[in-house]
Design goal:
With 366 residues, this protein is α+β, with helices and mostly antiparallel strands. It has 13 helices and five strands. The protein has two domains: 173 residues, Beta Polymerase, domain 2 (2-Layer Sandwich), CATH 3.30.460; 116 residues, no CATH class.
Length: 366
């Protein structure tokens, strides 16, 4: 229990902060490492970063002064500032999507003891015209099992705050702190700040909805391409002609179709979305009329021979391996050199053409 005298308690808190700073830093590092391991290792939640900080003592004092001092002194209640500072150790988790915030909350609640929850998202979304910082704040401490571990004994009873935000919410928080004189300013400036905050909120919502629409498009294209593969397999089994015109056969190649077709031929490989996007754009720039059926045909008709070249190439004294993108480059060049000669470097093309000349199609060793 403190004295209840503000000047005395300010000095006591500064001394407390200085005296325990090393322990606080060690606890922050331990909590950060633990939370980072949990949220990045478990589940499929995309997390941009996990970072920690020790709150500045003057910031703590100012917050106490604004939130607690007047009422405590009005009631004649003795106080110590440190008893009212719950976020001396603070962690921030920045995720990609709004709906990941609740998932992260549930994940943390399963590993830590939750002392208090401050839902700034709900408090804003329940108003009609207010915009601003959105995020979820959790006051936590280690669960009983972890508090009993020797490595956590030194800070077993310390609590810490975790702020969970999206990238866009985090960006708004940074920018919002740079806007000067936000409260006692003319209404036309307040409206402009609210408009800006609303745009950030809209961006968060659109980002999530684009993700959902992308997943739906991937599923739709996967279903269509799978049906095309099934039709081709049935036609080959019966000796019928599949044809090349009309219907879905003439659908332009895009990243979704590229990914579905590439996964069909390279089942055990991972395809990074950004590389898929860039590579598809490159293919379409070289042949603007290429369809997904044409792309499929080029891979299907050449991949067997390109894989034999791969075996030859990787058996030589050369570093590395031919990854799926490189194999697709060779397939497209082999199937349509007029359009796709630019996909191979001069040295790669020279090596490939030399092997092709030495191993003609009719050669059983080719």
């Amino acid at each position: 229990m403190g004295s209840g005298d503000f000047e005395t308690e300010k000095a006591a808190f500064r001394a407390f902060h200085d005296r325990h700073l090393r322990q606080l830093e060690e606890a922050k590092n331990a909590f950060s490492a633990l939370v980072r391991a949990l949220v990045m290792h478990e589940g499929q939640i995309a997390v941009s970063k996990v970072e920690g900080r020790i709150k500045d003592p003057e910031e703590c004092i100012n917050k106490f002064d604004l939130k607690y001092r007047a009422e405590l002194e009005r009631n004649g209640t003795a106080y110590a500032i440190r008893d009212h500072v719950t976020d001396l150790i603070g962690l921030r988790i920045v995720c990609l999507y709004e709906d990941d915030i609740e998932k992260l909350r549930d994940q943390l609640a399963s590993h830590f003891e939750v002392i208090e929850v401050t839902d700034k998202i709900a408090s804003l979304e329940n108003t009609e015209s207010s915009f601003g910082y959105k995020g979820l704040h959790l006051d936590l401490r280690l669960g009983a099992d972890r508090r009993a571990l020797p490595e956590h004994r030194a800070y077993a009873d310390l609590q810490f705050e975790v702020q969970i935000r999206t990238i866009i919410q985090d960006s708004w928080s940074v920018l919002d702190h740079k806007i000067k004189y936000k409260k006692s300013i003319p209404n036309h400036l307040k409206r402009r700040i609210n408009t800006l905050a609303a745009l950030f909120e809209l961006a968060d919502r659109e980002f999530r909805e684009i993700r959902d629409a992308t997943e739906e498009e991937l599923a739709r294209v996967a279903s269509e391409v799978a049906a095309e593969f099934a039709g081709e397999d049935q036609a080959e089994a019966t000796g019928a002609k599949t044809g090349t015109g009309g219907g879905r056969k003439n659908v332009a190649l895009d990243a979704f179709a590229f990914l579905r077709i590439a996964r069909h031929f390279f089942r055990n490989e991972e395809f990074e979305p950004q590389k898929v996007d860039q590579f598809t754009e490159r293919i379409v720039s070289l042949d603007p009329d290429i369809t997904r059926s044409r792309f499929n045909t080029l891979l299907k008709s050449t991949l067997s021979r390109v894989r034999r070249y791969q075996a030859h190439f990787e058996s030589q004294d050369r570093a590395g391996r031919l990854n799926p993108f490189t194999l697709i480059r060779h397939c497209l060049f082999l199937g349509d050199p007029a359009h796709f000669v630019g996909l191979l470097t001069n040295s790669a093309r020279t090596n490939f053409e030399a092997w092709l000349a030495a191993n003609p199609v009719g050669d059983t060793n080719a």
